[in-house]
Amino acid sequence: ATPDPKITELQPWATGFGEGVDATPYGMPIEFEDHVIRRNVEWLTADTISSINFTPIHALDGTITPQGCAFERHHSGAIELRKEDYRLMINGLVDRPLVFSYWDLERLPREQHVYFCECAANSGMEWAGAQLNGAQFTHGMIHNMEYTGVPLRTLLQEAGLEAAGDLEDKWIYVEGHDASSNGRSIPMSKAMDDVLVAFKANGEALRKEHGYPVRLVVPGWEGNMWVKWLRRVEVTDAAVESREETSKYTDVLEDGTARKWTWEMDAKSVITSPSPQAPIQHGPGPLVITGLAWSGHGAITRVDVSKDGGKTWETARLAQPGDPKAVARFYLDTTWEGEELLLQSRAIDETGYVQPTKAQLREVRGLNSIYHNNAIQTWHVKTNGEAENVEVS
Amino acid sequence: DRNVTAYPERAALAGPDPMLAERAPEPEPSGGLIAAANAEASGAGAVYGLGREALPQEIAAWDVDIMPDGSGLPEGSGSVRDGEMLFSQNCAVCHGEFAEGVGNWPPLAGGDGTLADEDPVKTIGSYWPYLSTVWDYVHRSMPYGAAQTLSDDEVYAITAYILYSNFLVESDFVLSDENFTEVEMPNADGFIVDDRPETEYVKWRTEPCMENCKDEVEITMRATILDVTPEDEAEAETTEQAAAEPVEAAAPADEGGDGMQIDMALAEEGEGVFRQCKACHMVGEGAQNRVGPQLNDLIGRPMGGIDGFRYSASMEEMGEEGMVWNEETLAEFLVKPRDYVEGTTMSFNGLRSDEDVAAVIEFLKTHQSD
To answer: What is the ipTM of this complex?
Structure first.
C-alpha cells in the first residue's frame, strides 16, 4: 500500500500556528460544518415572518440541541426585546395582580430541566403520504434543551390564588410581547405542576428566536403553548378559545369534527442516521443506526428498530436512561451487508404507550388531522447506501 | 452589569409604567394614592415580596382578551358597509377583497360543508367555533404588520364584514357589543375535547410484536416522486451569496447608478428595517410581484409603474400625473402611506422613525440595476 501523505508529509497545521484566543469571542461552528443549519420549506407558508424552519436532526448526535440550529416558529417575526424593557404581568383571578421585571425573576428560586419542545405540526406534511425527503423536514420541528427558570407556580403563588377559589376548574391564559401575542389557555393543574418561566437554555440566555429574554416552557405539551417573549399570565375561569386553540392546533377527524385541547405530544421516534440527508457512505461492515425518541407522557423506556419494514424488531440501546419529557438517543450497533433496508423505529414510554404505525393513526384520525402525527417513519436504504422517505404496507 | 444598574424601583409608587400604559385609558387622578394603598396590601401572603402591584391602567392596557360569552368586549359597533371599506384597506391585500384569500395567505370565507372532505377548507365561516375569537384576533394581532392599530368600532365593522362574506348576516347588519352573542357560528358544535385516552391510548398501550409481525412488506409510496423537498444545492448557493454580500457591500461608491451615493452602513441597517416590508414585497435577484410590487429599480419608477400589478386607483392616477418614486416621495410615503396616497391598498401603517425611513430608502438604493 502507498503511505498516506497526510501522515508522511509535514502538514501546515502541524508546523505553523492556528488562531489565537479571542479570534471569535463568541465562537461559530467551524466552516466545514456549515451545512448543519436550520432550513425551511418555502412552499409551506406565505412568508418567513409567520413561518417555521427545521432542526438539522440528521446531522446532530447526543440529545441537546444547540440553540443556533434549534427550529424557529414565529407568528409575527422574532422581536428584539431588551431585559430593561421586559415586563411580566400576572393578573385575573389573583389576590394581587403583579408586574415582575426581568431581574425580579432572577431573584426567585430557580430550577433546571431538560425538555423537548415539539411543534404540534411536526410530521404534519406526512399525513397523506411520504412527502419530504429528509429527517430534518419530516421530524425537525423539535428541539431539546436544558432550561433554567422559575416555576410558574411560584409566580402564581406570589400573586395569591385565594381569589381563584377551587383551582380544579381554573385556567391560565398566557401571551407574548410580540405582535401576534400567540395567546393560549392552559389548565391550572398543568400551570401548578411543571410549567417553567425560563430565561436560560443550554446554559446561556435564550436566543432572540426562542423568546429572549423570557419564554414559557410547558413540558411534554405542544410547542405552540411555549409562549415566547412571555408578557402576561392571566388566571381565568374558562379557556379563552383564542385563535391558536380553535382555528389552529385543533385536529380535524375523518367525519369533519375536530378534537380540541390536544396538548400532550405522544411518544414518537425517528432514525436520524442513516436517513435521506445522511446516507451510508462507508460500504458494507459495521454500521451505527441512531435516532431520537421522546414522549410528552414521561420518560422513554425502550426503542425498537426494524430493518425489514416492521416484520421483525430488535431493541436498540438507549445512550442514557430516558428523562421525563426529554429526548432520548438510541443506537443500534449492527452490520450492514450492503442489502436494501426498510428502517423503522418504534418508541415506548413509561406509560407503556407504543408508537403507532401510520395505518393505526389513520384508522382513528383520517388524513386531515395535520397536527400530532407521531407515526412510525420508514426510510428505504438502497444498496448504494442512499435513503429515501417511503411508506410501506 | 446588573450589579451597577440601579435595581428597578417599586414603580407602583412612581405611577404607571409607560411601557404598559401607553394604550391604556386616561390614568385616574388619584392613581398614585390607590397604587400606594395597593402596594401596602401586597406583601400579605406573598412569599418573596417580589414584583410590584399591577395598576388598573396597566391591566386595562394588556388584558384585552375576549371570552366566548362575550365578556371583555368593549362598547362599540360597526356595520358591514363600513367593514367592507375597512377590509379592503386593511385586510384585502392578503385575504382578498371577498375574504377568499390571496396566494398562500388564509381565506376567511367559504369552505362551508367541506370539513369531512379530502381537503377541508377551514375558514372563519366553516370552522371557527366562536365569534369572540375573530374579534379578539383582529383586535390584537391584525392587520399583519400593524397589529393593534384598529379602533374598537373598526374591529366590530371588520368582524361584521367577515360574517357577511361568509353569508352569515345581511348587508345591512350592524355588529355591536349588545348583539354580539346572538350571532351563531355554523361550526360551534364541531369540536370535541381530546379523547385520545379512550380512542387511542387504550389500544396502543400493549406489548408490541417483535417477530413475524407481518407476512409481506411492500413500498407503497415514495417521497422523491413528489419532488417537493428543498434542494441542498440551492441552500449552498444561498449561503454562498450571503457570504459574498459583505464583499459587495464593501465596494465603495456608485452601485446605485446615476452617480447615486450609497451609505452602506445605513443600507445595512435598512435591510433590517425592510423585514417589515418583506411580508409583501420582494427585492433583489429574481424578485417578483407578490402582495405588493417588486421593488428593484424603484428609484425613478413612475408611481403605479409596474405593468400588470393591480394598484389602487389613486396610485395609478398619481403616476399618470407624472409622479415618480425618488428619495423625497418615498420618504413622505413611508411615514404614513395612507396620508400620502389616499386609498392605497398597502395596509402598512408607516415606519416608526425618520431613521428607519432613511435606512430603508438607502437599502432600496442598493437594488438599482445601473
So the answer is: 0.94
